[in-house]
Amino acid sequence: MTVTRDQILDELKRLTLPDGGNLVSRDMVRALSVDGPQVRFVIEAPDPATARKMEAIRAAAEELVQALPGVEKASAALTAHEGKPTGAPRGAQAAPAGGDSAPSLKIGGHPKPQTAPMKPAGIKHVLAIGSGKGGVGKSTVSSNLAVALAKQGKKVGLLDADIYGPSQPRMMGATKRPASPDGQTIEPLTAHGVTLMSIGLMLDETKAVVWRGPMLMGALQQMMTQVKWGELDVLLIDLPPGTGDVQLTLGQRSALDGAIIVSTPQDVALLDARKAIDMFQTLKVPLVGMIENMASYICPECGHEAHPFGHGGVAAEAAKLGVPLLGALPLDLETRLAGDAGTPIALGDDKQAAAYAALANRLIEDGLA
Ligand SMILES: Nc1ncnc2c1ncn2[C@@H]1O[C@H](COP(=O)(O)OP(=O)(O)OP(=O)(O)O)[C@@H](O)[C@H]1O
């Protein structure tokens, strides 16, 4: 008989810590692996000083697990956070066991082992919005699409997973830090009818984020599993540009229903968009389609139409790759100003809002929202 992870965690819950809670409720168990009768795990203390006081707990935890039926050898190691890394989350302490201070939630710890792809229970569809190149308007498209879908009566969530340059708080006009009243779950914000969460809102915005892959994975896992998203028709995930750890983690570890790629028509952007498409295909994430942004510019003075980033490049690329072209959005001053003001252009009723409404309708017709 092989011991299960749940049995081990249940056993560890029996071990009460001197300052309250147990190893599981205090989220200290890491890297639990069960290899037949061999069990290994790590106990991660919030700091080296606490770790030094926990040797007896480590030994007791090892002994308890070793006594479980089906376990031949259990080994537990102690580690500790080495202080706050650069770009560390605000309140980067483990959730306090008690006391007067408000519980805080550590963002970006080591990921927990998963048995199934992440998809919060109440969410019907999860769509990632990516781009190869930065600055092509992926966040602008994400926020406006979210608002346009909400205007159609859909329950929409928007997760800003761009930890290196989170822009949704500004674009959606919601910069308050989400609360974590119990130190375990995060209450997302609401803006313009959209349920919003940004990893950036949990970080110190004055510091650059220097995170290793595992911490990124842990942070994304938390966004998917600890945020109280509630019932949603669709969760849009605004990815960072490129094909890095965030994209890989989400593609491999969460149940994405599709990916949308935003690109400008210029060659350098298309070159990178192709790489992003290739990555999603490799990860077997269905490609919903491409969106051409900054496709044309209408001079407000004379009405002349110009194509500063080229013309038709995304349509041609989409046709070549056999991916639908979902829409072409112009370069538009009002779109930029609305984004900067935290009131996405899709909230209004002008031509740009209509273009986003058409995009939203298409996703709804395709059964993706
Ligand atoms: N169609 C558009 N017309 C005018 N300005 C736009 C348009 N799309 C995006 N912008 C502006 O371009 C800038 C970059 O857009 P945005 O932040 O959405 O791009 P991104 O691809 O998400 O960038 P990053 O790589 O930094 O995440 C922003 O100032 C935004 O307001």
Automatic annotation (TrEMBL):
<keyword id="KW-0408">Iron</keyword>
<dbReference type="InterPro" id="IPR002744">
    <property type="entry name" value="MIP18-like"/>
</dbReference>
<dbReference type="InterPro" id="IPR044304">
    <property type="entry name" value="NUBPL-like"/>
</dbReference>
<keyword id="KW-0547">Nucleotide-binding</keyword>
<dbReference type="GO" id="GO:0005524">
    <property type="term" value="F:ATP binding"/>
</dbReference>
<dbReference type="GO" id="GO:0046872">
    <property type="term" value="F:metal ion binding"/>
</dbReference>
<feature type="compositionally biased region" description="Low complexity">
    <location>
        <begin position="85"/>
        <end position="99"/>
    </location>
</feature>
<feature type="binding site">
    <location>
        <begin position="132"/>
        <end position="139"/>
    </location>
    <ligand>
        <name>ATP</name>
    </ligand>
</feature>
<comment type="function">
    <text>Binds and transfers iron-sulfur (Fe-S) clusters to target apoproteins. Can hydrolyze ATP.</text>
</comment>
<keyword id="KW-0411">Iron-sulfur</keyword>
<dbReference type="InterPro" id="IPR000808">
    <property type="entry name" value="Mrp-like_CS"/>
</dbReference>
<dbReference type="GO" id="GO:0016887">
    <property type="term" value="F:ATP hydrolysis activity"/>
</dbReference>
<dbReference type="InterPro" id="IPR033756">
    <property type="entry name" value="YlxH/NBP35"/>
</dbReference>
<comment type="similarity">
    <text>In the C-terminal section; belongs to the Mrp/NBP35 ATP-binding proteins family.</text>
</comment>
<dbReference type="InterPro" id="IPR019591">
    <property type="entry name" value="Mrp/NBP35_ATP-bd"/>
</dbReference>
<keyword id="KW-0067">ATP-binding</keyword>
<feature type="domain" description="MIP18 family-like">
    <location>
        <begin position="5"/>
        <end position="75"/>
    </location>
</feature>
<dbReference type="GO" id="GO:0051539">
    <property type="term" value="F:4 iron, 4 sulfur cluster binding"/>
</dbReference>
<dbReference type="InterPro" id="IPR027417">
    <property type="entry name" value="P-loop_NTPase"/>
</dbReference>
<comment type="subunit">
    <text>Homodimer.</text>
</comment>
<dbReference type="Pfam" id="PF10609">
    <property type="entry name" value="ParA"/>
</dbReference>
<dbReference type="InterPro" id="IPR034904">
    <property type="entry name" value="FSCA_dom_sf"/>
</dbReference>
<comment type="similarity">
    <text>Belongs to the Mrp/NBP35 ATP-binding proteins family.</text>
</comment>
<dbReference type="Pfam" id="PF01883">
    <property type="entry name" value="FeS_assembly_P"/>
</dbReference>
<dbReference type="GO" id="GO:0016226">
    <property type="term" value="P:iron-sulfur cluster assembly"/>
</dbReference>
<keyword id="KW-0378">Hydrolase</keyword>
<feature type="region of interest" description="Disordered">
    <location>
        <begin position="77"/>
        <end position="118"/>
    </location>
</feature>
<protein>
    <recommendedName>
        <fullName>Iron-sulfur cluster carrier protein</fullName>
    </recommendedName>
</protein>
<keyword id="KW-0479">Metal-binding</keyword>
<dbReference type="GO" id="GO:0140663">
    <property type="term" value="F:ATP-dependent FeS chaperone activity"/>
</dbReference>
